[in-house]
Amino acid sequence: MALISLTFLVILLTIFCLSGMVEPACRRCSRSRAFVEKQCEATLYTRLCIQGLLPFVNSRIQTQQQLAQVALSSVKEFRQMSVDGEKQFLWHESNVQSWVSAALTDATACIDGFSTYSINSRVKATIKAKVLNVAQVTSNALALFNGYTARQRASFRAKKP
């Protein structure tokens, strides 16, 4: 009995010590987490947005641009926006919006297209759920991107005399 109590006490003390070491790292991430949660409020699928971006939360995600880059990590055009600057910004913005909107339309068309095929209902439901998830994540990425570009365009206007 004494051995069990001692073991329990050691485990309890270890947990308390480790939580003391982890706490400062969590505080650093809390600002980034709050930022992600605030930005995701502008999306249609807020909870999905937060869940999808939280794994990337660290002390570096503190701007709309960084958040949009994570959400659109596979879109090379987005990375080019920061390189080309203000002169080509609207052109790149239009390209990204067109491609992401097309992906969203394709996902919706894909879901609609399943109604014409005779497929096992369980398989059909699984495929529809996966495609719907892609559509929702795409919608969120587009909303985050649009929030970033709106703010960026406003800063360009503010710089002009």
Written account of the structure:
- The chain has 161 residues and is mainly alpha-helical.
- The chain has a single domain, classed as Up-down Bundle (Butyryl-CoA Dehydrogenase, subunit A, domain 3).
- 81% of the residues lie in helices and 0% in strands.
- It is built from six helices and no strands.
Chain-wise SSE layout:
Elements: H1 2-40, H2 46-53, H3 64-71, H4 76-84, H5 86-113, H6 121-159
**Rg (CA only):** 22 Å
Order of helices and strands: HHHHHH
Count of helices? Answer: 6
Structural class from helices and strands?
A: mainly alpha
Reading off the top of the CATH hierarchy, the class is best stated as Mainly Alpha
Please give the CATH architecture: Up-down Bundle
Largest sheet properties:
none
Low-confidence stretches: 1-25
Overall geometry:
globular
How many domains? The number is 1
Care to count the β-strands?
0
What fold name goes in the CATH topology slot?
Butyryl-CoA Dehydrogenase, subunit A, domain 3
Helix share, percent? over 70%
Task: Give the percentage of residues in beta strands.
Answer: under 5%
Mean pLDDT across all residues, rounded? Answer: 76
Terminal-residue CA separation:
79 Å
Pfam family, one: PMEI
InterPro entries: Invertase/methylesterase_inhib, Pectinesterase_inhib_dom, PME_Inhibitor
GO molecular function, one term: enzyme inhibitor activity
Keywords: Signal
